[in-house]
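User: Just a sanity check before I run the rest of the batch. Below are the C-alpha cells for the first item. I only need the designed sequence back.
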C-alpha cells in the first residue's frame, strides 16, 4: 500500500458519504495478482444525523480497524479504501485470495470482542479493479476538491480565516489554439481577467491561459468555482490545472 491517502465526500443514493482511499495503491500492488475484491461491513451503533460515524464510536472503530488491517495484510488482503454512509462502515480489500473466509475469521473475531456484528463479502466485478476505479476513485471534480482542501488548509495554517474575498488565479491548458481563444472570450464574459503571459506555450507544449477574479475561498465557494472551471475548460477542450491565491490576515 502507498502512503498517499486522501478523502472526499459524496452523495450515494442521496445520502452523505465519506470516502477515504489509497490514491496510489494500484501502483504498489500487482493488479494481476491482487485481483479479488472484498468488503467488511460494520453497522454503526451510534451514527450521527448524516449516517456517518463520529465521536467516541469513530475513535473506537479506528483502533479496531488498525488491528484488522495489520492482521489482514499478513493474510495478503490489502486495504484500498473505506466508505461510511447510511449508518454503515465498509472497509475494502484486494487480495490474491479467492475466498473471503480468512478475512471473515479475522474481522468477526476483532469486532465481536467490541460488540459488533459484521458482514464480510466478495465484490463482484466485470473486470478486476473496476470497483476501485469506477466507484471508489474520485471523479475530476472530487479530485479537484481534494486539492482545494489542501490549499485551504495551507492558508489556514498561515493565519488566514478564509472569510475575506481576494484575487484567485487559475491556470488552464490547451492543445488547440482556436479553442483556447474561444475559451478566453467566453470566460471573460463570466467576469474573469486574462492575465499577462497567457496564450504562450509551456515547457510541455501546452498553451496556457492565466485567468483571475476576486472570489470567496471558503470550502463550498471554491469547490463550486472549480467545478464550473473544470466544466467550461472541458467544453473548450482545455484542462483545468488548478489555482493559487494570497494569504489574507484580518
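Assistant: Here's the designed sequence for the first item:
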Amino acid at each position: 500500500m502507498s502512503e498517499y491517502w486522501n478523502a472526499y465526500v459524496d452523495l450515494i443514493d442521496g445520502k452523505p458519504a465519506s470516502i477515504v482511499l489509497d490514491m496510489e495503491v494500484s501502483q504498489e500492488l500487482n493488479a494481476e495478482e491482487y485481483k479479488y475484491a472484498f468488503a467488511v461491513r460494520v453497522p454503526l451503533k451510534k451514527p450521527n444525523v448524516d449516517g456517518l460515524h463520529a465521536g467516541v464510536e469513530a475513535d473506537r472503530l479506528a483502533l479496531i480497524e488498525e488491528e484488522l488491517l495489520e492482521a489482514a495484510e499478513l493474510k495478503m488482503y490489502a486495504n484500498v479504501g473505506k466508505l461510511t454512509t447510511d449508518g454503515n462502515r465498509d472497509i475494502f480489500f484486494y487480495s490474491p485470495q479467492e475466498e473471503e473466509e480468512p478475512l471473515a475469521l479475522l474481522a468477526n473475531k476483532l469486532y465481536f470482542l467490541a460488540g459488533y456484528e459484521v458482514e464480510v463479502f466478495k465484490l463482484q466485478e466485470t473486470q478486476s479493479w473496476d470497483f476501485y476505479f469506477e466507484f471508489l476513485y474520485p471523479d475530476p471534480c472530487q479530485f479537484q476538491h481534494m486539492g482545494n482542501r489542501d490549499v485551504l488548509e495551507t492558508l489556514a495554517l498561515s493565519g488566514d480565516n478564509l472569510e475575506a474575498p481576494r484575487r484567485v488565479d487559475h491556470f488552464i491548458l490547451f492543445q488547440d489554439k482556436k479553442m483556447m481563444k474561444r475559451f478566453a472570450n467566453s470566460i471573460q464574459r463570466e467576469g474573469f481577467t486574462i492575465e499577462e503571459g497567457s496564450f504562450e506555450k509551456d515547457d510541455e507544449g501546452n498553451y496556457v491561459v492565466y485567468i483571475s477574479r476576486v472570489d470567496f475561498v471558503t470550502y463550498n465557494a471554491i469547490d463550486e468555482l472549480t467545478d464550473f472551471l473544470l466544466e467550461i475548460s472541458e467544453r473548450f477542450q482545455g484542462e483545468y490545472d488548478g489555482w493559487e491565491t494570497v494569504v489574507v490576515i484580518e
